[in-house]
Specification:
Layout lengths: L1 H24 L1 H4 L3 E5 L14 E5 L8 E7 L2 E11 L2 E5 L10 E2 L3 E9 L1 H18 L1 H6 L4 H22 L15 E9 L5 E8 L3 E11 L6 E2 L1 E6 L2 E5 L3 H10 L4 E9 L2 E9 L7 E5 L2 E5 L6 E10 L6 E9 L4 E5 L5 E10 L2 E10 L1
Length: about 375
């Protein structure tokens, strides 16, 4: 009788333990607050080893925590969080040289709160099976086990083992369910706006521009660098501000080119380190004469200094000469009125692309 009572107690205890294992086993399938995962790779060594069982609980997490994120019940990763931003997280195995691709925060299921080492739980399970077999030895000795029973037992064990591996062992996640396409960012064009900003137009594929961390500007062949400000204007444009006017003025007058813009930006699935050459389209100032007035227009996105000499007289003979220097801002102009003089001539001088340009025109009559 004592042996029977012990057998019943062991059967009840075994049923309770089995139920607990099943609950934990199916935890991440049905979304239970607690789940267990068997480590199947070496990416987290020496923190976690192959065969270790990690216990995950639905808790908040931060950078440095180990989490379990899953794309489906059978596609999960147990890695450490290294970055959280803009609705995505980046994880990395302690033994991996590079981080994983960013994934949405919604895929994170659990934070790892405990680890059962393989050399602890595996011997314990084996001892429990041996103890169960010993307690029920009389039943096994009396029962005549046929070859069919052995075959059935092997099939059941095979099915259970494979199901356990499929549901408990983590696997790697591909955002598209296949080979992930490589992010690609290439230069389309560059231009200088009339207010002196640089617009970088890009071809962006399989990713998205998030933010710009740093920006530098320099002239090709020179060592001096200028700190600039850059923002993401759209998913295919970066707007660079803060280019010194003096630098653009030098490029216009002296022919210094090209301008080099270096930006470091964050993108989905990576980082963009871009070096872009900017070749502004410089044009000579436009000079128009209307009813004795001279209009000088600077069509460039940089200041231009012009020297103007006028020669005026009201009768034939010596003329009165005057000289004045103007700084025409980007897109700016100056109007010189000589309409009250009977005879008027003008001489305009400026530097353009390293050349001394002289323009002489008769204004009146």
């Amino acid at each position: 009788m004592a042996g029977l009572r012990l057998a019943k107690r062991s059967a009840i205890l075994g049923a309770v333990l089995l139920s607990l294992v099943i609950v934990l086993f199916l935890g991440r399938v049905v979304g239970f607050p607690v789940a267990v995962v068997i480590v199947s790779g070496r990416s987290m060594e020496p923190t976690l080893h192959v065969g270790d069982v990690v216990v995950g609980v639905k808790l908040s997490y931060s950078v440095g925590d180990i989490v379990i994120w899953c794309a489906s019940p059978t596609y999960c990763v147990v890695h450490r969080v290294v970055k959280i931003k803009d609705g995505v997280i980046v994880t990395k195995g302690d033994n991996n040289p590079f981080p994983d691709p960013p994934v949405p925060k919604s895929l994170v299921r659990y934070r790892v709160v405990g680890v059962i080492r393989w050399y602890v739980w595996l011997p314990a399970v084996l001892l429990a099976l041996l103890a169960y077999a010993y307690v029920h030895r009389e039943y096994f000795l009396k029962r005549q086990i046929s070859p069919g029973d052995v075959a059935s037992l092997i099939v059941v064990f095979f099915v259970v083992f494979n199901a356990a591996i499929a549901l408990l062992a983590p696997t790697y996640y591909s955002p598209r369910g296949g080979v992930m396409e490589t992010p690609e960012v290439t230069l389309k064009s560059t231009s200088v706006t009339m207010n002196g900003n640089v617009l970088i137009n890009l071809n962006v594929r399989n990713t998205r521009l998030l933010s710009v961390d740093s920006c530098e500007a320099l002239v090709y062949g020179e060592k001096r660098k200028y700190v600039c400000e850059a923002i993401v204007a759209s998913n295919s444009q970066i707007l660079v501000k803060g280019i010194p006017k003096s630098l653009l003025e030098r490029m216009l007058e002296e022919g210094v080119r090209p301008l080099i813009i270096k930006v470091k930006a964050k993108i989905v699935f990576g980082v963009l380190n871009g070096v872009y050459y900017v070749y502004p389209t410089w044009r000579r100032p436009k000079v128009t004469i209307t009813n004795g007035s001279v209009m000088i227009i600077n069509p460039n996105p940089a200041p231009l200094r012009v020297n103007v000499t006028t020669y005026v007289a009201n009768r034939p003979g010596p003329a009165n000469t005057s000289f004045k220097s103007y700084v025409l801002e980007a897109g700016g102009s100056v109007r010189i009125d000589l309409s009250k003089c009977r005879y008027a001539y003008i001489r305009i001088e400026y530097l353009f692309q390293g050349k001394h340009v002289i323009v002489q025109k008769r204004v009146r009559p």
